[in-house]
Design a protein that fits this description.
The protein is mostly helical. The chain has one domain. Helix content is about 70%, strand content about 5%. It is built from 8 helices and 6 strands, in the order H-H-E-E-E-H-H-H-H-E-E-E-H-H. It has a two-stranded antiparallel ribbon with strand order 1-4. A two-stranded antiparallel sheet has the order 2-3. Helix 2 packs antiparallel against helix 7 and helix 4 packs antiparallel against helix 5.
C-alpha cells in the first residue's frame, strides 16, 4: 500500500514553511542574532550534524530499529534515504532560526570553575555509560541504548566546556530548545501515523508520549540540545574573545589562567 505523503513531502509541508517564516522574521527584526557569528556557527553545526549522525542512522536502519514506507523515499545512500540526510541539514536550520529570535546571552567570562567543568564532563559520560548498560539489556532497550551512547560524548564536551554559562542562560535556553522540540515531536508523530517511517516495536521500550515512542521524543530533544547549546557556546566564545580585554582589562592569557583549570 502506498502512503499518502512522502518523506520529501514532510520536508515541504512541515519544515520549509516555518524555516521561511523564521528567516523572514529574522531579517525584519533588529533584536535577532543574524550575521557572521551565528551563521558561521550554524554552518559548523550542520557539518557536524551530518558527520556525526550519518554513522548512527546507518547502523540503526539495517539493524531494523526503523524503516520507511513503500514509496516514501526517493533513494538511499549507504542505508539512509537522501531525505534523511536533508533532514540533518533542515533541523539545525529550523532550530537555529528560532534560537536566533530568543538570543540566550549573558555577560560571563570564559573562565569557569574546574569543578563545574568536571561535573559537566561527568554528566555527559554518565549518559553514555547508561546507554552502554542498556545495550547489554533486553532488545527493547536497543534504540534507547544507542541513543544515549551516541549522545553522551557530545553532551560531555558541551557541558564540560560551558555548563556554568548554559546554566546562567537556562531560562531562555529552555524556550530555545522546547519550542522546536515540541514542533518536531508533532511532525514525527504525524509522519509515523501516515506510515512515512515505522519504528520497531521489538527495539523500543513500548513507552510513548501521546503516541510518540519515547525514544523518538528523546532523539529530537537531544539533537536540539546539541544545536542550541553548540550555537550558544560558539557565540559566547566569539563575543568574549572580541570584548574580553576591554571588559576586564586583562589579557586573554590571564583569562585562561591555571587557577581556573
Amino acid at each position: 500500500m502506498t502512503i499518502p505523503i512522502t518523506y520529501l513531502g514532510i520536508h515541504v509541508a512541515f519544515l520549509l514553511p516555518p524555516i521561511l517564516i523564521l528567516w523572514s522574521l529574522a531579517v525584519r527584526r533588529d533584536r535577532v542574532w543574524l550575521g557572521l557569528r551565528p551563521l558561521s556557527g550554524l554552518g559548523i553545526v550542520i557539518l557536524l550534524a551530518v558527520a556525526y549522525t550519518t554513522p548512527f542512522t546507518n547502523h540503526l536502519i539495517p539493524a531494523g530499529v526503523w524503516w520507511y514506507g513503500d514509496g516514501a523515499v526517493l533513494a538511499t545512500v549507504w542505508h539512509t534515504p537522501i531525505e534523511e540526510y536533508l533532514f540533518f541539514v533542515l533541523q539545525p536550520i529550523l532550530t537555529a532560526l528560532w534560537l536566533f529570535q530568543v538570543r540566550p546571552a549573558a555577560d560571563r567570562p570564559l573562565t569557569l570553575p574546574r569543578r563545574h567543568r568536571l561535573l559537566g564532563v561527568a554528566g555527559g559520560l554518565a549518559v553514555a555509560v547508561v546507554g552502554l548498560l542498556l545495550l547489554f539489556g533486553d532488545l527493547s532497550t536497543y534504540y534507547l541504548g544507542w541513543l544515549f551512547l551516541w549522545a553522551g560524548p557530545v553532551l560531555a564536551v558541551q557541558w564540560g566546556f560551558g555548563s556554568t554559562y548554559l546554566w546562567t542562560v537556562r531560562r531562555s535556553l529552555l524556550v530555545a530548545i522546547a519550542v522546536p522540540t515540541l514542533y518536531l515531536w508533532l511532525v514525527d508523530r504525524i509522519a509515523i501515523e501516515l506510515g512515512v517511517w515505522v519504528i520497531s516495536d521489538a527495539h523500543t521500550t513500548g513507552y510513548a508520549l501521546l503516541g510518540l515512542p519515547i525514544e523518538e521524543a528523546l532523539f529530537f530533544l537531544v539533537t536540539n540540545l546539541f544545536v542550541v547549546q553548540g550555537l550558544v557556546l560558539y557565540v559566547w566564545v566569539l563575543e568574549r574573545f572580541d570584548g574580553l580585554p576591554e571588559r576586564t582589562g586583562e589579557s586573554r592569557q590571564l583569562a585562561t589562567s591555571s587557577d581556573e583549570w
